[in-house]
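Internal ticket #5521
Category: modeling
Description: The requester needs a full-assembly model to guide mutagenesis choices. All entity lines are attached below as received. Residue total reported by intake: 542.
Assigned to: D.W.
Attached entities:
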Amino acid sequence: MTKNEEMAVKPIDSPPPVDLKALDDFRSAMTNEVIPEIVRVVEKRRLGAAQSRHWQLKC
Amino acid sequence: MYSWIKLNTSADLNQLEKSISVEYSPKLVSQRLVGGISDAVKSVLIEENYVDKDYRSTYYNFYSKKGQKYRADCVRLHFFDQTVSFDEDGLKLSWEGDRLDDHYFGYMVLRPTGIATIGRTILSPDVRSGAKGSIITANHKVHLLGYKLSIQGFPSMDQHIDISVCAHAACWSILRHYSEKFNIYREFHTHDITLMAQQFNPGGLVPSKGLEVSHAERVFLEAGTFPLHVAKNSPNDPSFYRQLNAYVESGFPLFAAMHDRSHAIAVMGNEWRPPVNTGIPGMRYAWDEVTSLVVVDDNDLPYRSIPVKGGASYSAEDIDAFIVPLPEKVYYPADAIDLMVPKLFILHALIELPPQNETIVRYFITTGSGYRNFVRGRESEFDPKLVEEIMQLPLAQFVWIVELATEDQWSKGYIAARAVIDATASLREEMPFWLVHNRKRAVIFKRRVVGDGISDLEVLDLSGMENTALTRMDQNLRPIQVK
């Protein structure tokens, strides 16, 4: 976390120490694991939807 | 014009055969009703010469062009409880209590088409035999004999067979619900739906040859919604069902396709199993608590309950794809929420969350104003400082809500923590949050500068919430109260 980022966090009503490392860990997990997986799964769904568009419904 | 049938049990609905002309197929209608509605219905008012806008749309464009002479008008059946009586001479209804609405169970239009005669139907789910769980409803206005009535339900009708099929009926049901529930959507009649499905007027019997799923998508697009089409990735795709359930719990009815059956239905409700203490470790989702879906199938009366697995006819397992007609500003897909949720527990060091393997996760969409309304209605559950922050957050029109609960909390309708996520976020956003809070702390993301998600936040330590419970947000579905 940069110094600027630390200063932008505004504690309210004197909260106890806040562990912002968890946010960094979360951001890292999002960047390295979740977002690539989201992009992959959304693309897979798009391809699956393209195939299912031609299904006939008539019953 | 009007006649009244008193019922001791629903089996007495067989009397309809004597009162209604053969082109409305009263025998088949009464058979459907006898097995489908409860004994709480104690009388039926038969309204003849009813002008039904949906039937008329097909009459003007199809039936009136046929050699055989079809009637232009319909019959409408109105269902009442035991407190209502009818004065045939004065054409007046009498009832006990203040509101006739409280004794009214809805109506069913019968078309003079000989086959598949059940037209527009708004039936109270409370008198549908076998209906269970909670469903999406809208308030439908009814004008009868100078009385203004209203009924909460979901529209249904049989397919016409000769000019429309199951997929048209499912599209019609969903769009009629939308036009009644949300004033930004106009009303579409049966014939409109057959035209909207195609690029050109198909004419004649072409619509009866069936629709492709893409045609249904086109109908919803033409109607002004932003349809999202989700297909199952594999036979065992739990994320597909979690998303299906999330959209239903968000109040969006789904157009569901069953490839092997060439059939389409509208999914508009679910039933949770009674709370049980399983003691089985592992994170679960709201879908894992669902035992059945409530659907509108044009081969049956509305509110059919289909099991998650198995069953005599079909089950949720047979659904391969669904279309959810979303409003414009929902960009962040359920897939993204589903994949992100397990990582939320990384935040435990900052904001206490229940152990991941003891948590039940529920996620759904609501509006920013709906969320604020929920908070305002339960102010006593929140630290006033948090209420103030929530009221001032510049929320987008739609938000995803993620609720985390332990098994014990789930059984009581409580939660441990809630995350509010921007439904307009892009797929690649690292911090799509507005807010994450439990009863001790809130992390508020101001989202004022693009790309500055982690620094533009406030941490608020909460007080006064130690002894209050956070209530689960159940706002979109109406529980069925069996009568």
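Resolution: model delivered.
Comment from assignee: Chain B touches chain A through 57 residues (CB under 8 Å).
Ticket closed.
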